[in-house]
Design goal:
72% helix, elongated
Length: 214
């Protein structure tokens, strides 16, 4: 399967992801890191304080293991795509975080002598803010699932789940809007390439092991 075929089949997931990512980057560039984070930081509730620390796990690296269960009901090529997306997420996210080494919101606002609101009980992190690893993992993993679910409604649901992870990272003061916008675009890029690699596997021994029932 070619890249353009993958993009076309995944359009109901990719289109809102790209729109969100670009708006996030534009909004941050226009208003600045600090002002954007302060704007988000003023909206909170007891319910979100309880829910967001759990919801954010839908973008944790373990999401790839969690999705193994629904992937068991799909074609084996879907499982291979999920494995590729996990590996690519690890490589790209780790490399970019190490390269940019940007401070996270709590460290950034410490330097500004401003007390950013923290969610009670959530462990603080201070370094490697850009891009958001959780957001990258969420948009990569849920993007692969969206491809095999095909239908518009399911793809939009997968996007909504990943978008919620992006918001959770801002709510928990773990990342800036800029970080999650870049993470969303990177995650979608990883999903496309993971799917492409999965469909490019043609060696006989791989075919025999993974795809003998297809």
């Amino acid at each position: 399967m070619r890249i353009n075929q993958i993009i076309r089949s995944l359009r109901w997931y990719l289109a809102p992801t790209l729109i969100f990512g670009l708006i996030a980057l534009f909004f941050t560039a226009r208003n600045g890191l600090a002002e954007t984070q302060i704007w988000f930081n003023q909206y909170y509730s007891d319910f979100l304080d309880s829910a967001m620390p759990w919801y954010t796990y839908l973008g944790d690296g373990l999401i790839f293991l969690m999705l193994i269960i629904p992937f068991l009901f799909l074609k084996r090529r879907a499982m291979l795509a999920l494995i590729f997306s996990a590996l690519l997420t690890l490589v790209f996210s780790s490399a970019l975080k190490a390269y940019f080494n940007e401070p996270r919101p709590l460290r950034y606002f410490e330097q500004l002598d401003y007390d950013l609101r923290e969610v009670p009980g959530v462990k603080a992190h201070y370094n490697h803010s850009f891009p958001s690893g959780h957001t990258t993992a969420a948009f990569a993993a849920w993007g692969v699932l969206a491809f095999f679910l095909r239908k518009k409604g399911w793809q939009l649901l997968c996007f909504s789940i990943a978008l919620g992870v992006a918001y959770s990272r801002i709510y928990l003061s773990m990342h800036f809007l800029r970080d999650v916008g870049a993470g969303a675009i990177l995650g979608a890029f990883i999903a496309i390439n993971a799917l492409y690699l999965a469909f490019r596997i043609n060696k006989e021994w791989v075919q025999a092991y993974w795809f003998k029932r297809q």
